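Class, look over these structure tokens:
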Amino acid sequence: MATEAAVQWLSIGEVAERTGLSVHALRFYEREGLLVGPVRRTSGGRRRYTSADVEWLLICVRLRESGMPLADLKHFAELVRNGPGNEAERLRLLEAHRQRVDAQIQALEECRSVIAWKVDVYAEHLARDEAGGLWDPTA
């Protein structure tokens, strides 16, 4: 195990740059209990993060971008913080989220299909110079 002196500490600005989160969002994540470990601080009170914090935050970013509710992310972080023994509950939480994401993907694919069809209709009519009657509210 690495000693504390061997750990590469990162500032909040460096973590923001690596994760794409704003400094404000990082503070919010900490306040809301979304991190799996305590954020260490310098003697001057500045936050210090590790590469493990960055890895966890990158997972959080993807879970939030994919629509995981904040309450579920908080619960997931709590389970991870609690350590071994709750992996089945973590799996259930992640599986439920994956099912929601799969449903969103299917719905978006259906939307894309309609859009592609409509693009083809317009392109065909424009190619034949017959676009005048497409969705004409006066017709």
User: Anything to note?
Assistant: The chain is about 60% helix and 5% strand. The chain has a mean pLDDT of 92. The helical segments are 12-19, 23-31, 51-65, 70-81, 87-127. The first strand starts at residue 40 and ends at 41.
